Amino acid sequence: MSTQAAEPHVQTSSEYIVHHLTHWQNKPQTEIVDFTVFNIDSLFFSILLGVLGCFFLWKAARKATSGVPGRFQAAVEILMEMVDSQAKSIVHNAHSRKMVAPLALTVFVWIFLLNAMDLLPLDFLPWIWGMVYEAMGHDPHHAYLRVVPSADLSVTMGLSVSVLFICLFYNIKIKGMGGWAHELVTAPFGTSKNPIVAVILGVVNIAEQLISFTAKTVSHGMRLFGNMYAGELIFMLIALMGGSWAFSEDPSGSIMLMLLHVAAGWFWAAFHLIIILLQAFVFMMLTLVYIGQSHDAH
Q: Nearest Cα to 108, choosing from 224, 235, 216, 229?
């Protein structure tokens, strides 16, 4: 009886996308919301890029000179002046800016590095991880790895919730617990001398404040996630064009598909660089705006 070697399974387009959108997790997720499940890849790259960002800023500060600066020092100084000017225009408390301005700089650099992972070749790091996973004796088809932490909703929402906690901290620090509590029940619709009307207005004011905090936090994280997730999907579709050409039975007949793959890849990478910078800047500016609002009295 003749035997034939099983042909290797070639992923379909949908399987390819699903594989790239699956996180490396500590255990399978069985529920929609499960706080015991962690996306190990997002945590790893977030921490790694955070450490690298701090290292580069520390290196720039350590080698700073009062003479003619080098290119790296000049770039860091331009970035710091930009962040500092934005902080001064939004947060008018000089004492608060001693922490808020470095925070804004850290947010911008960190998110830019997180976003920039999208510019790496789509299959490069997952391919390396697949070889390592296979060398460990596991099935490489189950080697999941997502390398863009800002395309992970749990990361972006974690960042936005952290900004919310900082805003609550400054609300209490600047206005005092009593002053902030008074603001919660009197702003934005005011109050009344009539006890019944005052109670109604107080409930409405608290509801409006809670909705405002929730909307700001959710939109803050969703905006970054949505843009980076969409960019990641487009890179996958462009990669699929190259895969369709590579696995075509007649590659010479689909040369236009290969040329389109190359052209689209270069164009989208160049355009995406603008998105990466813009999203880091927008997240930083909203952080400053929300913290600045926590200093304002109503």
A: 224
| Residue 227 annotated as catalytic | yes
Identified catalytic residue from 93, 223, 244, 248: 223
pTM: 0.91
| Paired tokens of 187 | 């702003």
Place of tokens 């999208």: 118
Of the residues 227, 252, 254, 294, only one is catalytic, namely: 227
Closest of 223, 91, 221, 225 to residue 161, by C-alpha:
221
Say whether 223 is catalytic: yes
First to last CA, the chain: 86
Query: Whole-angstrom Cα distance, residue 108 to residue 97?
Result: 16
The mean pLDDT value for 89-111 works out to 95
Contact 120, 20 (CB under 8 A): no
Across 45-63, b (16+ Cβ under 10 Å) vs e yields bbeebbeebeeebeebeee
**CA 202 remoteness from chain centre:** 36
pLDDT in tens, 154-197: 999 999 999 999 999 999 999 999 999 999 999 889 998 999 99
Check 13, 192, 212, 219 and give the catalytic one: 219
> Backbone phi, then psi, for 186, in 5-degree steps?
-120, -20
The model's confidence at residue 1, banded by pLDDT at 50, 70 and 90, is: very low
Active site residue 115: no
